[in-house]
Specification:
By secondary structure, the protein is α+β, with helices and mostly antiparallel strands. Among the domains are: 92 residues, Winged helix-like DNA-binding domain superfamily/Winged helix DNA-binding domain (Arc Repressor Mutant, subunit A, Orthogonal Bundle), CATH 1.10.10; 81 residues, no CATH class. It is 32% helix and 25% strand. The protein is built from ten helices and 13 strands. A four-stranded antiparallel sheet has the order 3-4-5-6, with helices on one face. It is elongated and about 75 Å long. The structure holds zinc ion (2 copies). One zinc ion binds next to loops.
């Protein structure tokens, strides 16, 4: 109850044009004035009074008082944005509260993980870039996007930006950091035998944020792709996995070149093998899907045929 009341109070503070204008004025001042490395812009009372349309100084003083602590920080030199002030004002300025522009359907690279066809098509569905297989009509992936991400790019660079963000998020998630709120994640590996994915990938790592309640799920094979050992292994073979989207890895799973298995229990241990050009990198994982060891294997091609 208390938490809810606090949240509604915090949003009520913003239900006023002058207050939103104050936050904007601080963001604009920071953008226009800040030298490299100068830190957060601070505006004095009279500077804010010049920038914001407000009847008189006592009104301004009242609004600043209301915003301070939650959205503003006050020091001897003036006012600057707090963490919440930054988040809110960037959200307003970027227009990310609007509906995204439409996109697609557009053909994208990659193979369907269900049927193996190269028939993937991307389009926007609400706040997700959704990729479907036109051959078997199943959804292959859905990646979150922002309206500003769509608005500022054309088709190809938009799809590239979705790959980049999913790769960056995956790296943070594997390091136990919630990309959404920055809190620490807890992770566990679960076996999902009824998964529609190929047998090789019934192990799924699920990471949960107990602060913002976001949950991230990934097949165990994909969870290690952005580990430095995998990035280096693939880079040596001409593949930049760090620039690839998750759906572009389906081919490897489908062909049985990427596999995962449980190798011990109590405590659980796992092993993922990523094969490429006859060689392989093997990654050893503990019960929280943390990579605890890696090894390269030469001439691993014999293992990689999939029935
Ligand atoms: Zn398909
Ligand atoms: Zn979180």
């Amino acid at each position: 109850m208390t938490e809810n009341r606090l949240a509604t109070d915090i949003f009520r503070l913003l239900a006023d044009d002058t207050r939103v204008d104050i936050l904007r004025a601080l963001a604009v001042a920071q953008y226009e004035r800040a030298q490299v490395g100068s830190g957060a812009a601070e505006l004095g009372f009279s500077e804010i009074y010049d920038l914001v349309d407000v009847e008189n100084t006592s009104k301004l003083s009242y609004h600043l008082g209301e915003l301070t602590e939650t959205y503003l920080r006050k020091s001897n030199d003036g006012y600057s944005l707090s963490h919440a002030g930054e988040r809110i004002v960037r959200f307003i300025l970027s227009g990310n509260y609007k509906q995204p522009e439409s996109f697609g359907p557009e053909t994208v690279d990659g193979v369907c993980v269900f049927c193996g066809e190269e028939a993937l098509e991307a389009k926007l569905s609400h706040q997700f870039l959704r990729i479907d297989c036109t051959a078997c009509e199943q959804q292959v992936t859905g990646q979150p996007i922002t309206p500003a991400q769509v608005r500022t790019r054309d088709g190809e660079s938009f799809v590239q930006s979705v790959k980049l963000r999913s790769a960056e998020d995956a790296r943070q998630i594997r390091r136990e950091m919630c990309p959404e709120c920055g809190a620490r994640l807890s992770a566990e590996v679960v076996s999902v035998p009824e998964t529609p994915l190929p047998d090789a990938d019934s192990l799924v790592v699920t990471s949960s944020c107990e602060e913002c309640l976001r949950e991230y799920n990934s097949p165990l094979t994909y969870s290690v792709v952005y580990h430095p050992a995998s990035i280096a292994f693939h880079w040596d073979r001409g593949v930049d996995v760090a620039a690839r989207g998750l759906w572009e890895f389906h081919q490897y799973v489908y062909e049985g070149r990427w596999t995962s298995e449980q190798t011990a229990s109590d405590p659980n241990e796992y092993e993922v093998v990523l094969r490429h050009s006859g060689d392989a990198v093997r990654l050893y994982l503990d019960s929280t899907a943390t990579v605890v060891g890696t090894e390269r294997v030469r001439g691993a091609s014999g293992e990689f045929s999939r029935s």
